[in-house]
Design a protein that fits this description.
The chain is an all-alpha fold and about 190 residues long. It has eleven helices and no strands. The chain has one domain (about 1-185). The protein has helices at about 1-15, 15-30, 40-50, 50-75, 75-85, 90-100, 105-110, 115-125, 130-150, 155-160, 165-185.
């Protein structure tokens, strides 16, 4: 594993700034197209730029990708969605639940590393969730997500095998939840 990480680092450094740029673009694209493995790109950023800069770059570009995905779905796609489900009570019920989800619950949902972020982005855009609420939850929740993938490891099996890592994740998710509640009160979202 160490040898592979070193090879990736050498390869990315040989690309120079273009390599970093490609990593950032791929992180943004992953928020729209879920076929790309986000953890790989975050891990590469951590390897190439170090923990702090890798974290900041990954966090910023993940948020930008989420915003782009939200905005795409908030336009014409939203109207088409609503036109098709107006007569379906079950879908309307779940749509209302998501739209009325508290910022704390939304933040925790986003902070969980295995939540499909693209679905949250798309659903939030389609139901026209308040943008201030969406961006606040994304900005806070992605802190825990990027931390998890960057510092903790790149696989579920690796994370489960070390109880200390699981405790750290639970603490980070709780902290993000508390921060979201505080911001919710301050901003009155």
């Amino acid at each position: 594993m160490v040898e592979l990480a070193e090879q990736i680092k050498i390869f990315m450094q040989s690309l120079g700034l273009i390599g970093g740029f490609i990593g950032c673009i791929l992180i943004m694209v992953e928020s729209i197209l879920p076929v790309l493995p986000l953890f790989v790109f975050i891990t590469i950023n951590f390897l190439c730029f170090g923990n702090l800069i890798g974290f900041i770059i990954s966090w910023i570009f993940t948020i930008i990708g989420c915003i782009i995905s939200y905005k795409i779905c908030n336009g014409k796609l939203s109207k088409k969605y609503y036109d098709k489900i107006n007569d379906k009570e079950t879908l309307n019920k779940y749509t209302k639940k998501l739209k009325n989800m508290s910022i704390g619950s939304l933040t925790v949902l986003i902070a969980i590393p295995f939540t499909p972020a693209f679905l949250v982005n798309i659903a939030s855009g389609i139901i026209k969730m308040d943008f201030k609420k969406f961006i606040t939850a994304i900005a806070i929740g992605k802190i825990a997500l990027v931390y998890f993938w960057g510092y903790i490891g790149t696989s579920l099996i690796e994370s489960i095998s070390n109880p200390k890592i699981l405790i750290e994740i639970v603490i980070i998710v709780l902290i993000t939840y508390i921060i979201s509640l505080i911001i919710n009160k301050v901003l009155k979202i």
